[in-house]
Amino acid sequence: MSVVVLASLSMFAIAAIFAVCLGLANLKLQVQKDARVVKARESLAGVDCGGCGYPSCNGYAEAVVFDGASVTLCSPGGAETVKALADLMGIEPPVVSNRVAVVHCGATKLTRKRRGLYFGIKTCLAAHVTTGGDVICPYGCLGLGDCFNVCAFDAIRMEKGSPVVDANKCTACGKCVAACPRKLITLHDYDPQKGLVAVVCSSRDRGPEVKKVCEVGCIACKVCEKQGPENVFKVEDNLSAMNYELYTDASACQLAIEKCPTHCIAVINIRTS
């Protein structure tokens, strides 16, 4: 028998021995999964979106079972997942509100005033940290679609250079909130029967400065405070904000919406498929 053949057989035998040893060690040392973790994992949406705050669905399932994490954190799973996790953990299913992402900038590529052409990397983050893109308003949407790109549920589309949310698909996972470098997106409870009103501007500049750079920005005129429901609107730091604890429905805010001179207070036209 040649030396080459003998060496090959020896290496094969050694590899086979190691494989058997590793297999036996794996059987002896493997950690048995808690059946509740398996069931919890199966109850989740399974998209590993990270909206729950954990790096994966499996990580969240383990946190629910072992650490007492809230059963309401899987937004894509909705009420069905909440109930399944609550039943698994032997608790009463909490009431979960519908939530949706809202973009607090009403400008489009037709109304944004621009300083020139932007030739940098076509992401909102790159534009924001370098030149600020071609948008003059330092608070406005840059329109390059970072929120659109991170949405795993096809719930955001770009129209006229601005993100538009589809309420039927939005799971309120929060990925778009984290992706926007100008922090223009927030999550709000949404009741289709009551409608949702929001201030679609984020500028903190004084009125005259806002007028120079945007046609639809808040100019802090306080008309909303006078015409809206008591204490629902409050202008602070040159920007109107809403107290959603006192908000009832869109109809109660109709006068404030109509009287707003720049139309930056509006019933959110959350598009549905």
Determine the N-to-C terminus distance: 74 Å
Strand content: 5-15%
CATH architecture verdict of the largest domain: 2-Layer Sandwich
Q: What does the radius of gyration come to?
A: 27 Å
Give a quick set of tags describing it.
3-methyladenine DNA Glycosylase II, Chain A, domain 3, 10 helices, 12% strand, alpha+beta, flat, two-stranded antiparallel sheet, two-stranded antiparallel ribbon
Written overview of the protein:
34% of the residues lie in helices and 12% in strands. It has 273 residues and is α+β, with helices and mostly antiparallel strands. The chain folds into two domains: 35-89, Electron transport complex subunit B, putative Fe-S cluster (3-methyladenine DNA Glycosylase II, Chain A, domain 3, Orthogonal Bundle); 99-267, Alpha-Beta Plaits. A two-stranded antiparallel sheet has the order 1-4. Helix 2 packs across helix 3. It is flat and about 90 Å long. The mean pLDDT is 87.
Reconstruct the topology from this structure.
Layout: H1 3-29, H2 35-43, H3 57-67, H4 78-89, E1 99-103, H5 124-129, H6 146-150, E2 156-159, E3 162-165, H7 175-179, E4 185-189, E5 197-199, H8 207-213, H9 223-227, E6 233-236, E7 239-242, H10 254-259, E8 265-267
Antiparallel strand pairs: 1-4, 2-3, 5-8, 6-7
Helix pairs in contact: 2-3, 2-4
